[in-house]
């Protein structure tokens, strides 16, 4: 949820998020989602 809703903070403070950015070289854009929308995205990703 933090990576979906708070990507900027996560990339600044979380070592795992920073490592992922170094590996992928593509920053996930901030989508401006509500908590409810973020939960829907997360639950959708779990089905994949």
Task: Please tag this protein with its features.
single chain, 48 residues, mainly alpha, globular
How does this model look, in words?
The chain has 48 residues and is mainly α. The chain has one domain (2-47). The protein is 71% helix and 0% strand.
The total of beta strands comes to 0
Number of helices: 4
H and E string: HHHH
Radius of gyration: 11 Å
Biggest pleated sheet:
none
Structural class: mainly alpha
Question: Which regions are unreliable across 5 or more consecutive residues at pLDDT < 50?
Answer: none
Number of domains: 1
Give the mean pLDDT: 93
Brief account:
The chain is mostly helical and 48 residues long.
């Amino acid at each position: 949820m933090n990576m979906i809703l708070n990507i900027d903070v996560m990339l600044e403070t979380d070592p795992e998020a920073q490592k992922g950015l170094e590996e992928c070289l593509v920053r996930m854009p901030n989508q401006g989602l509500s908590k409810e929308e973020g939960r829907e995205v997360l639950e959708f990703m779990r089905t994949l």
